Records
---
Amino acid sequence: MYKETHVQGNSCTRKLMYKETHVQGNSCTRKLMVPPWTSFFVEEWVWDFQSRSPNVYLCYHNKVACFHIDPVVESTGTAAVLGNKAFAHGQHYWEIKLTDVRGTSMMIGVATQDAMLHTDNYEYVNLVGRDQESWGLSHRGEIWHGGQKWKFCEPFFDSTVIGVLLDMDKGTISFFKNGQPLGVAFTGLQDRGCELYPIASSTASESEVELGYRCCKYSTLIDQCCMEIIKHVNRDNMNRLPLPAGVSAKMKEKGGKVLSSSRVLPLP
């Protein structure tokens, strides 16, 4: 169970931009702003009350994260919050609305459970991607990982909707902006061998991020098996496994694509 935090002021008193997604059975029947696939399944994760900075307040059933809304104390650092669902397999897509874009840094991305979620002492930083535990896109159009940044797209403005496509099988993160694909930002995430969570951060007082559509698509069972074996078996030793020739060939094919170090794609 996750507690819903009620706050006063103009941070969490408006209506949500998104209505609930209607489903038929287990599959979604409502069109996404940017449908990554022709068929998919709805996900219902929200922001995690247990995995957040003390300067993050959650409302609307934890679908809206409000940053630095203390009426007396203004922002004195950077705050972040994780989603309450970890991803290990499959492809996952979600949209986040940045209501009021301002401040030193507003970011979205993915992170491990060990990611930093808070800074203080007036340390306003690009928190998502500051170390090896997270990968992020800032409102200034820069992508961050391991303390390094690369120019990725044009800056965001108020009410921008950012889509995140996390492919845990290929180990990639792609971003979308107001319905338009921005391309692949990061590769090699599967090499970490751990589950990843959605994350958002902000330095700005009374700023918000609002969850929109959340959906997923899983690969076939044989693809999942191959990906797990590839993570633990050296490519040169795959032919020693007692597997059918077709499966072994498919594993080698996949291995050639995923057994690479975590890196950022070169940008033009």
---
Amino acid sequence: MTGVIPREVAFANARAALDRARARRDADRAAGRLPADVELILRRLERQQPRHHAPVAPAQTAA
């Protein structure tokens, strides 16, 4: 084995890690465990996001 991870696997692993981190953040946010300054940052970032871009569902990420 050469120790090289195929590009598709690397992207899938990174996407899965990001999804887990977002799920943890969302759970903490829903439970009110985020500090007020972090909550304000998230709200500001959400307002800056383009409104016409819908989130990509997990089923749509596979090519």
